[in-house]
Amino acid sequence: MINLLKSCALFSVAFILFSGVAIPVSAQETQEQGLSYEAIKALLPEEIDKAGPLIDAFYEKAVQNEKDALLAKSYYLYGLYHYYRGELYLSIDSYQKALETDYADQDIEFAGACWNNLGINYDYQGYPGKSIEAYEASLKAAEELEDSLSIGQSWINIGLLEVKNGELVQGKETLNKALKFFEALGDTLNMALCYQNLAVTTKEAEDWEVFKVCTERALELFSAKGYGLGVAQMNNNLGVYHSVAGQNTKAESYYGIALDQARQVGNILLIGSILINQADHAVQNGRYDQAIDLQKKALQLFQQAKANDRIELALIELLDLFAALGDYEQFKGQLEQYHQFREAFASSTASARFAELKSLYEHERHLGQIKQQAYELQQKQQFLTLIGLGLAAALTGLLVLGLLYFKNQRLVRSLYQKNKNALRHPHAEYPYEVPEVVPLEQVAGAGKGAEKVHLITEEASTENIDRLEQLFLDINALVESLKLYKNPTLTLSELAKQLNTNETYISQAVNQYSSKNFNAFINQFRIEEAQKLMIQSKGDIILDHLIEDCGFNSKSTFYRLFKQQTGLTPRQFMYNASLEEE
């Protein structure tokens, strides 16, 4: 029984420990697999295929743990993932979900990053108005954080979008504000970007002198920073300026320099743009064949880059060239190619939009499945935890009951030994012959001066012993020796007759020296007799016979007095008597 209880205790402790660490261990494994926010973000965009399943796992962990911060970050990761895959609708939807979380309300920097990325997405989709709103929200977050770099960059983004949206004056003001800001910081690269975008603004406004000043200043700053792409773009701008100014030699020189630099940095879109500008310059100088050749080369580069907006512009310019030349056949062929492109572009655009919307639906369903799985797993874990706790509580309860049982058994055994040791040793048989009974009337009618008759043992017959004490010794010896207690009807008067005295003296002696009344005094002998018989029989005795043999005529009285005197029930005493060795 003890071994079983120990096993139950160990099992209950082990189960509690297992239940307590099940989820944390899972979280630790997740961390070891690289499912941290920063680790996954670092995979994008180079290892995008590896990042996808990890983002799903990160999202599932967020749902399981019901952590709003993890949920917000998982949506942000989805936004990056879909952006790099060109799935702008899905990217926008993910950032919007991230912004709807409580975490985005608390972490201003996180919200600002979401708004900034939304601005980029809207810009690529061709929604400058929405893009500006997103950048303005990002700017507000940067201002709250007092993040000067983010503030200036937001102004650049907003200013450029305002220019794209035709708001030239407003765009110029925003860009100038950004420029002053970065000048104060001494940030030359962002100053160069401001001048570059101001050049775009003044070009749209055909303010060529300011365009030249902004371009030259940007070129100077880009050159100082060693930013090759910016240098190539600014040399291209100077080629445009000198072409407009009719300075053909300088224009061609700058175009040549820009073309070489663009090829060095490997930017095919910039190369195509420079070729387009060279073609326009050739047209200005009446070199149509050269212009057509340059336009076709640019078209090939745009097609290679799959830049549909630039492909369309290149096709339109070729149509204009063939029209200007009056080359009807080439114009007709080019027009047919343009229509084919438009149809293919429209079809591919529609297909792409449809595919994105379908992907959005599939993504929502995918997230829903992850949520459902996470919820079901959480419910199972909670159910198992409750079962485990219930089982552990039950086993712990059994353990406690077992410990209490054995503690009680030890206590019972201790009480048994104390009772056994406390049993009085049998007195020697009463040494005197029991006198004839003297009538009570004679005893009671004796004169006051008459000496009471006492039967005393030889050892106790000294004058120093109080007569009541001697009477008590006589009573005790007589009751035990003759086992008078076995008589269930023994009375005070009968014992007085046996001792040739009166009831008053008997009662007084018993009360004074046993601190009990007569009945309790006699019952003590009966209970001790019961204990002796149980010990002698090693508990193998019929209880009903024992009760009767000890002088009790009531079973309930026997049980009550036995428990009261020994602290044990008769059954407990008999069980411990059965354990006695021979």
Show the helix and strand layout:
Elements: H1 2-32, H2 37-43, H3 48-65, H4 68-84, H5 88-99, H6 102-106, H7 108-125, H8 128-145, H9 148-164, H10 168-185, H11 188-204, H12 208-225, H13 228-244, H14 248-265, H15 268-284, H16 288-305, H17 308-325, H18 328-422, H19 440-444, H20 467-481, H21 492-498, H22 503-514, H23 518-536, H24 543-549, H25 555-566, H26 570-578
Overall radius of gyration: 55 Å
Please give the count of helices: 26
Number of strands: 0
Order of helices and strands: HHHHHHHHHHHHHHHHHHHHHHHHHH
What is the average of the pLDDT values?
80
Assembly state of the chains shown: single chain
Low-confidence runs: 1-34, 427-465
Form type: rod-shaped
Helical/strand content category:
mainly alpha
The biggest sheet, with number of strands, parallel, antiparallel or mixed sense and barrel status, is: none
Helical fraction equals over 70%
The end-to-end span amounts to 26 Å
Strand content: under 5%
